[in-house]
Design goal:
Elements: H1 14-31, E1 33-37, H2 38-55, H3 60-70, H4 73-86, E2 95-102, E3 109-115, H5 120-131, H6 139-144, H7 146-184
Antiparallel strand pairs: 1-3, 2-3
Helix pairs in contact: 1-2, 1-4, 3-4
């Protein structure tokens, strides 16, 4: 019976699975997002999130522990220098899995796994969304009086044009006065 065996074996031996997850974790750390199957993405999330938590405390012991999982010096230094600084205040949930549909060749479910703090599109969209929120009260009045609104806009533009012509006339008079003032000095 299979009691108490909670992780997905992914159809591989333990050494192959460990090597594959280590390589995928270092690719995720270096590239900030990778495309893979849903099962591998879920297994990778369980593999990489404890490593990111260890990277928050930069000690020699933690670096050696993380290196034993990743086997890549560049990925370890990237994780401890950049990623740990960006996720320092996050208590967990460093990765996001987004399903992208099925693979064309065999129909396997595909997903994109990414580091949450490195998605500029979603971070930018959330900031814009908060600033452009408006209420929709009074929408019935707008539909009832479109002709009156257009007439008011036309009157404002006519007044603005008249003000501009008077301003231009006064500006044309003032440079001549300034030139005579400078001659006197």
């Amino acid at each position: 019976m299979r009691h108490g065996k909670k992780f997905n074996h992914l159809g591989r031996t333990s050494a192959h699975r460990k090597a594959m997850l280590g390589n995928m974790a270092s690719s995720l750390i270096m590239h900030k997002r990778i495309n893979t199957t849903v099962a591998k993405a879920k297994a990778l999330r369980k593999y990489v999130e404890p490593l990111i938590t260890k990277a928050k405390e930069d000690t020699t012991h933690n670096r050696r522990v993380v290196f034993s999982y990743l086997q890549d010096k560049n990925a370890v230094s990237e994780l401890f220098r950049e990623i740990s600084q960006k996720v320092a205040d996050r208590p967990g949930g460093y990765t996001r899995i987004i399903k992208t549909g099925r693979r064309l060749g065999d129909g396997a479910e595909m997903a994109m796994i990414e580091l949450v703090d490195y998605n500029e599109l979603l971070l930018g969209a959330s900031k814009d969304k908060k600033s452009t929120r408006r209420s929709r009260r009074g929408s019935s009045k707008k539909t009832a009086e479109p002709a009156a609104v257009e007439a008011a806009v036309k009157e404002k533009t006519v007044e603005a044009v008249q003000e501009e012509t008077t301003v231009e006339n006064t500006e044309a008079d003032s440079p001549a006065e300034e030139s005579t003032d400078t001659d006197k000095e």
